[in-house]
Amino acid sequence: xxxxxxxxALLPFLMAGCATxxxxxxxPAENASYLKNGSGQIKGLVLVNGAPAKxxxxxxxxxxxxxxxxxxxxxxxxxxxxKLPTLGADEGIYVRKTKTDVAGRFSFFYLPPGSYIVLKxxxxxxxxxRLQDGQIIEVKLxxxxxxxxxxxxxxxxxxxYFPNNFQPPPNYxx
Length: 174
Fold this sequence. Notes:
Layout: H1 2-9, H2 11-16, H3 28-31, E1 40-48, E2 51-52, E3 57-62, H4 65-72, H5 89-92, E4 96-99, E5 105-111, E6 114-120, E7 125-131, E8 136-143
Parallel strand pairs: 1-8
Antiparallel strand pairs: 1-2, 1-5, 3-4, 3-6, 6-7
């Protein structure tokens, strides 16, 4: 029990290192070019444990400090899987969203050149890509879920919290 308490005592310090600070302010001037239509395309495949992730929500946002901070909150939300900060009306105009098909594929069309964050929120998987005008980029997002994890659980649970040999005390609920 003392080992469990000592590991649990580390939790606040470890959480302090997670993306919990303020999100950088939105600077409309640095995001304005992302509102235009272009001829680029980002398409990809999402896999979870090697299988297609069907009907998963995929976000595409500018790779600016504001949205990088926002996307960082998708991983690792192991205590609230898939939860992202709510976007305000002034932010939402810059973020595109789609769902994967039954084969785990997704596409974003008519993109202007720029650097983008491709994010699968409920597994905290993201990639940053640089798109040129007229370019088509293929992205593969892979994640794995630990054995026995409930749907929406973090693919990389913290081993300090529930080690493989952990046995909770009798009548302990977690």
